[in-house]
Amino acid sequence: MRKNSIKNTRINAEVMKELANLIRGGIKDPRIAPMTCVTDVEVAPDLKTCKVYISVLGDEVTRQETMEGLRNAEGFMRHHLAATLNLRNTPTLKFIPDTSTEYGMAMSAKIDEVMAPIHARDEAEGAQEDDE
């Protein structure tokens, strides 16, 4: 099975859906932040390993505690995946923090900061035209 095959894409989607549901309502670990999101899942073509990209809204301490809680619950999640998905092998889960959301928000803030003087100048010119 190739990495970008239709079968692999379907498996990735199913694993992602099950893990998202499990993190949202199945794990009772208080270290896991309530605003935790599974952004992507990459199951290896041999179904042995699975990279799970996790986005956590909060500070660095919250992110680290959530990742630790997820690593501790890996066995429970694998057991749940084995019970719900009919796969030849149940992959081992590797949780990877996804910081793309924070990066995008930081870039947006920088763009707004650079564009603020331009918007202020345009508004001032518009007010002068209205006065005339």
Describe this structure in words.
- With 132 residues, the chain is an alpha+beta fold.
- The protein has 2 domains: 6-98, GMP Synthetase, Chain A, domain 3, CATH 3.30.300; 100-132.
- 58% of the residues lie in helices and 17% in strands.
- It contains 4 helices and 3 strands, in the order αββααβα.
- The chain has helices spanning 6-25, 60-72, 74-84, 100-131; strands spanning 36-43, 49-56, 92-97.
- A 3-stranded mixed beta sheet has the order 1-2-3.
- Strand 1 and strand 2 (49-56) form a beta hairpin.
- Helix 1 packs across helix 3 (74-84).
- The chain is elongated, with a radius of gyration of 22 Å.
Large-scale geometry: elongated
Proportion of beta-strand residues = 15-25%
Question: What is the straight-line distance between the termini?
Answer: 70 Å
Query: Regarding CATH, which class of the largest domain?
Result: Alpha Beta
CATH architecture of the largest domain: 2-Layer Sandwich
Helical fraction: 55-70%
Structural class: alpha+beta
Tally of helical runs: 4
List keywords for this structure.
132 residues; alpha+beta; 3 strands; elongated
What secondary-structure arrangement, pairings included, does this model have?
Blueprint: H1 6-25, E1 36-43, E2 49-56, H2 60-72, H3 74-84, E3 92-97, H4 100-131
Helix pairs in contact: 1-3
Summarize the structure.
By secondary structure, the protein is α+β, with helices and mostly antiparallel strands.
